Amino acid sequence: MLEKIKQILTENKDVDGYKIIENKVEANELFFIKKNVDMDRAKDVQHFKVTVYKDIEENGEKYRGAASTNIHPTMSTEEMEKAINDALFAAQFAKNPYYPLVKHSTKYKTVEAGKFSTETLPYWINEVTKATYKKDNYEKGGINSCEIFLNKVYTHVVNSEGVDVEAINYECMVELVATWKETGEEVELYRCLNFSELDSDEIAREVEDMINICKEKAIAKSTPNLEKATVLFTGEAVKELFSFYYTKSNAISVYKNESTWKIGDKIQGEEAQGDLITMTVDPFLKNSTHSGSFDEDGFPLEPAAIIENGELKRYISNNRYAHYLQVEPTGNISNIVISGGSQSVDELRKEPHIEVAVFSDFTMNDVTGDFCGEIRLARYFDGKNTIPVTSGSISGNINELHKHMYLSKEIEQDNSFMGPKGVKLLNVTVAGIE
């Protein structure tokens, strides 16, 4: 079918360029209520996303319009031709400054096949299930419901400039709801794990941590109204905090004036007194569902240093926006790696602080730097005692606080993010409910 789509595109004289992304997904899915399978299903689907480009000249300026359409395997030739012509018609109204398409390259690296490639999907989803329920052996709590998805994804990118690359990746997602009940109301906690390699011990540890957090939440007291306090971020909030630096370093944000960062800027200020941020993007990060040797444009990927010791070295940029800003493209890489800091987590905990283990919701505004979160469970250390607390909120602006940012030496990974296990910020607003 791919050859038929290419034939239609090459025979259409109004098409000035094209890109085809072919995806085939084989999937196994399991749904549990507690430890009992409620439903299982499998699927095998294929689809094509076709982007057509139309070049336009007006007043001596060259533009490139683009529009996409989905082609399904059941379509007839006439239906495919109509879908492509409709997209081509739309493309002439989507005028963007001209940019070239990615050209064929010999620089693509081979990514080593992972463990999931050695056996069938049903075999591995059973192994994931065993790991998920390994530590679910408590009387007062445990996994209330669980959904496991394991996908084998074939991706093939072809364009009119000779790009023709393909890869197979594996994606596993485990969605959990853990509960715990003491004498009061039952406590519930949601967690979503994403990975491309099976680490049974790590999955079991994550589940056990969830259940224990539920247990702590069941006996937690109200968060005190601390006004300004030292906050230690852990877990998913760390990943969200650093999404700010990823977005601000992205050429798309710079081009759209959503970021004013320039190469050479000291992003934490000239007089930063904490740990300086070092950030790289790594397309080959192990155990990430976003790893691969090429992006959606077929651009060959390599690791790239973006921020070094607090200084912006280059932009993260796909082929199009690199052309607009006249910088070297990195390709579209989603994996973020943040270097560790100067102190251990235990050292970061020595002074009075509030350590947030789980937020009900945590939001980082990647444009303004404002962040806020509702505390699901935190541990408040007053200098002598540590008590679990809940409710209340934290808020602040990372631009004002990262001059005094302290990163743990310990590193941990959450799918496409690898970075410090803990991040300490001073003078964060903590609102209690007292």
Helix content: 10-25%
Number of strands: 21
- Distinct helical segment count: 9
Query: What portion of residues belong to β-strands?
Result: 35-45%
Distance, first to last CA: 65 Å
Average pLDDT, rounded to a whole number, is 94
3D architecture notes:
The chain is α+β, with helices and mostly antiparallel strands and 434 residues long. The protein is 21% helix and 41% strand. The mean pLDDT is 94. The N and C termini lie far apart (65 Å). The radius of gyration is 25 Å and the shape is globular. Strands 4-3-2-1-5-6-7 form a seven-stranded antiparallel sheet. A six-stranded mixed sheet has the order 12-11-10-13-20-19, with helices on one face. Strand 5 and strand 6 form a beta hairpin. It folds into two domains: 215 residues, PmbA/TldD superfamily (PmbA/TldD fold, 2-Layer Sandwich), CATH 3.30.2290; 215 residues, no CATH class.
Question: Could you write a compact summary of the structure shown?
Answer:
The chain has 434 residues and is an alpha+beta fold. It has helices at residues 2-11, 77-91, 121-133, 200-219, 236-248, 251-255, 319-325, 345-348, 398-401, and strands at 17-33, 36-58, 61-71, 95-97, 141-159, 164-180, 187-195, 221-222, 227-234, 279-281, 304-308, 311-312, 336-338, 353-364, 370-381, 386-390, 393-397, 405-407, 411-414, 417-420, 422-431.
Topology, pairings included?
Blueprint: H1 2-11, E1 17-33, E2 36-58, E3 61-71, H2 77-91, E4 95-97, H3 121-133, E5 141-159, E6 164-180, E7 187-195, H4 200-219, E8 221-222, E9 227-234, H5 236-248, H6 251-255, E10 279-281, E11 304-308, E12 311-312, H7 319-325, E13 336-338, H8 345-348, E14 353-364, E15 370-381, E16 386-390, E17 393-397, H9 398-401, E18 405-407, E19 411-414, E20 417-420, E21 422-431
Parallel strand pairs: 8-16, 9-14, 13-20
Antiparallel strand pairs: 1-2, 1-5, 2-3, 3-4, 5-6, 6-7, 9-21, 10-11, 10-13, 11-12, 14-15, 15-16, 15-17, 17-21, 18-21, 19-20
Helix pairs in contact: 1-2, 3-4
